[in-house]
Design goal:
The complex is a heterodimer of chains A (about 120) and B (about 110).
Chain A: E1 4-7, E2 10-13, E3 19-25, E4 31-37, E5 43-49, E6 56-57, E7 64-68, E8 74-78, E9 87-94, E10 105-106, E11 110-114
Parallel strand pairs in A: 2-11
Antiparallel strand pairs in A: 1-3, 3-8, 4-5, 4-9, 5-6, 7-8, 9-10, 9-11
Chain B: E1 4-7, E2 10-14, E3 19-25, E4 32-37, E5 44-49, E6 55-58, E7 61-65, E8 71-76, E9 85-91, E10 97-98, E11 102-107
Parallel strand pairs in B: 2-11
Antiparallel strand pairs in B: 1-3, 3-8, 4-5, 4-9, 6-7, 7-8, 9-10, 9-11
The chains are: A mainly beta (about 120), B mainly beta (about 110).
Chain lengths: ~120, ~110
């Protein structure tokens, strides 16, 4: 059972470089999310996709773009990386029914360092 | 916009002590989840609460959902070093957000 798979697990970028973080889920979930987690902090929502074909900004969207490629895949792109984007990035998915099945399932995270 | 606030932010206690962590919202929850996150890992679900006034138990962990569904608490009885971690509450139907987290350290 793969669940939510993120790639890569680690990445070092130079300031100004671009990269795309990939995420795929095999649970047939409607909603997918990208979060960032800074040291000692909780999770902050960057972007989310409530269903295939839709994306919306979360709490901290500046400097990021997303693509919901299909129901399974949701990618996060950094067009011009900045040191402030050094963080651990988590992708998650949920069934989004509003009831007991609304829990979020997480990938293993991508540790990104921008130098 | 719904906000989730957790308290306390940090907690360091001795093995065997009891503790309570709180999660409060500016609006009504449809449902609420509690997670624990260990270093280097993603959060893992502990419990979901749905009904106002609901109480759920998971071994030494007791979860309560407020009658008005705007607050929740997590109580740990006789904490053990294995309980160390970051505790997060989360909620949302489509826009799923998390609380600020409570970092718990249980000393042997």
């Amino acid at each position: 059972n793969a669940g939510v798979t993120q790639t890569p697990k680690f990445q070092v970028l130079k300031t100004g470089q671009s990269m795309t973080l990939q995420c795929a889920q095999d649970m047939n979930h409607n909603s997918m999310y990208w979060y960032r987690q800074d040291p000692g902090m909780g999770l902050r929502l960057i972007y989310y996709s409530a269903s295939e074909g839709t994306t919306d900004k979360g709490e901290v969207p500046n400097g990021y773009n997303v693509s919901r490629l299909n129901k399974r895949e949701f990618s996060l792109r950094l067009e011009s990386a900045a040191p402030s984007q050094t963080s651990v990035y988590f992708c998650a998915s949920s069934a989004s029914t509003g009831g007991p099945n609304t829990e979020a399932f997480f990938g293993q995270g991508t540790r990104l360092t921008v130098v | 916009t719904q906000l989730l606030e957790q308290s306390p932010q940090f907690l360091s206690i001795q093995e065997g002590e009891n503790l309570t962590v709180y999660c409060n919202s500016s609006s009504v929850f449809s449902s609420l989840q509690w997670y624990r996150q260990e270093p280097g890992e993603g959060p893992v679900l502990l419990v979901t609460v749905v009904t106002g006034g609901e109480v759920k138990k998971l071994k030494r962990l007791t979860f309560q959902f407020g009658d008005a569904r705007k607050d929740s608490s997590l109580h740990i009885t006789a904490a053990q070093p294995g309980d160390t971690g970051l505790y997060l509450c989360g909620s949302g139907t489509y826009k799923y957000i998390f609380g600020t987290g409570t970092r718990l350290k249980v000393l042997a």
